[in-house]
């Protein structure tokens, strides 16, 4: 990365070559940035058939800033099941280099990182974007434009024939800093956070000499000549049907099956299947012996991107185990099929209680809480009269109500009405389980049993809370950037005095000085001025509105002491 670059050197490449859409075509969204230049495309193991877009980044702002940094492209990938994704990248051989990206088909996100089987090939074809590397004594001349399809495919063919593709096992393909924007592994160069790409994505590059170079992301240990001798680089991953599953399965519920005479010994498993195969699915095939039915017919067919609920019976499976079985989607003629394996945890012992018809939801105005609504089925050996609820010990969470006086509930009976409880003070991240112990008791509280049941915490923080905000010096001013929130109705930004906030013990009414932005659509802004030596300023950002509601400056975590909103609303710096 160069600290500065003449604007005339910046070029955006839009290269399209031979797009052929078949019945296996799949829409993919690509978000990518590089230090310094890249093109990307799709093809098969033998080469690129569709070359997409690329860009030469001219400055640090072009790489990292939310407004000018990463680029996002919608792409249609033909022959998706056999497709490979390719990135050709090259640097200016100065300061730092790397590429970071995300690819999604709408349900699965693929990142640059060690969990994805990326490979790299060093072409050895110099592709510098300007005469540079003066400190290393070399002055390469830039070839015109990015590599074209014939050039790329020639190198891909050579890499295939010479076994020249390398993965991370031998140390040539290296995954460095993550996308949190905070200091990470001290062995690698720290990069600022890039908007629009998940925090767990990793910068990647090739190390030409793993025995002597520990940080290939910086010109330092790796000399200019070593950098030049390997670039440009080609990265690839595929086939994409092994990276992007053709379907997504999420568990809804697994309950002990009840028949006319009571427990049958089977389980009723309900799940949601989402078709991501690119073609309509008429059938879901379940070949494992313990699963019935074996053929589920979708009528009408399950369209690409569509989700349906499916309920099956599991027989002969043991409690407290994980049962894995195959799922196959097939078209109407059963000529096109794709499969995945999915595992479900059988946690119910079927000897105490279970909760059918469970739903979870958020509490308006309280994103640190959520609600659970359920019915109760008595699986114990006697009538139930009382229900107690226990949060995890030491969690700091509370449950209201934590006791329910249920009407006399016979064995194998289910409550005719549902109950709603509110869980507050939750410090569990959205999407992760929060577990509650439920105990059922007889009339005299002499007989009891209990079950621990876990619930996925809903995402009540996304719009209600303040998004992650970073502030960096920008000359004499301050650059603010924050993570975008989908469907946000603009953003409010306020500024205050850190010394006043401290001296007034967190009084935001006294410490909030001005509204920096009100309802602005972007996710970055340059604020005039910066703190002087010995002083400090603070900034907060919130989603201005979502679904017509004003959101919060709070973080939504138990470690925050008190709410910020009331004080800011009464301050002279409140945003209109």
Task: Please provide a written account of the structure.
By secondary structure, this protein is mostly beta strands. The protein folds into 4 domains: 7-242, no CATH class; 247-346, Immunoglobulin-like (Sandwich), CATH 2.60.40; 353-456, Immunoglobulin-like (Sandwich), CATH 2.60.40.10; 469-569, Immunoglobulin-like (Sandwich), CATH 2.60.40. The chain has 6 helices and 38 strands. The strands form 11 sheets. A 6-stranded antiparallel sheet has the order 1-4-3-6-12-9, with helices on one face. β22 and β23 (366-374) form a beta hairpin. The chain is flat and about 80 Å long. The two termini are 40 Å apart.
Largest sheet: 6 strands, antiparallel
Number of domains: 4
Structural class: mainly beta
- Strand proportion: 35-45%
Roughly how much helix do the residues carry, as a percent range? under 10%
Distance between the termini: 40 Å
The count of DSSP E runs of length 2 or more, i.e. the number of strands, is 38
| Strands in their spatial order, largest beta sheet | 1-4-3-6-12-9
Query: What is the overall silhouette?
Result: flat
- Please give the count of helices: 6
Mean pLDDT: 80
* CA gyration radius, whole angstroms: 28 Å
Which stretches of 5+ consecutive residues score pLDDT under 50?
Answer: 1-24, 130-143
